[in-house]
What does this fold into?
Amino acid sequence: MPKDYPRSRRIAEQIQRELSDIIRLELKDPRVGMITITDVEVTSDHEHAKVFFTRLGDFVKSSQPGVADSNTPVLRALEHAAGFLRSELAHRMRLRIVPQLHFEYDVSVERGVRLSNLIDEAVGNKPDGAK
It folds into this structure.
């Protein structure tokens, strides 16, 4: 989203809250498991929404390369449920246009944990005389 429009941002925040509830309470697909919606970006015309997610447990495993690859079944399950999720959003939100949902694994959390681990490792490997 090139420009941050206040209405688009408010819609994105509401979509994030509502999707979190719908996925937690109403989505019965076992492939999805425990996920967190980390962000939603809505286009300025409100036609499309990019939904970023992470899986609980990836924070622990994130030091291993390829964690994003293990989320392919989750991504497929979310894409398969996109129509259901969109219709549930239509019932919960008063919008003329309910955006098409596009899901994407949020690698920023994984990258942040990996950098934090590298910093902790570098600090832990200092010589005894150094501060």
